[in-house]
Amino acid sequence: MFQLSFFFTDITGDYKFNSYRLTYRYDLVKKPRIEFGVGFTAKIRDARIALSSAGLNEEKVNVGFVPIINFRLLWNIDNKFGLLLEGDALAAPQGRAEDVLLAAAYTLSDRFKIRAGYRILEGGADNAEVYTFSLFHYAAVGLSYTLGNKKE
Would you kindly state where each structural domain of the chain is located, as residue ranges? Predict the structure, then answer.
């Protein structure tokens, strides 16, 4: 006699990926219509992946440094409106990270600017311990305030 049995077990997953960044960027082109700069971002990754079920628990925690290339391109269409492409991105055999924004930018005053657009965040690792990649798409809105005197 052949008997086939099925059973189901609840599995709980927990995924945390915090990042903290410090960026230095140098403007190579700074003209009234076009601004372009490249730089370096020092990113600290604080990651945790955990799975648990009845009586079984497994967790991978990792905190580490990730060097990333930074870029920014602003095309000022006129004195008020522009298009902005900026982000951090780098790929290596161990994994990759991309965080890129494409947005419309609007100047409210000498000190205040707003922007709204599309942001994509993707990355992960492929090594002997883990294989994990995530991809997020979302709308982004920002407000910036400039301190000090405006450079002419």
Answer: 12-145
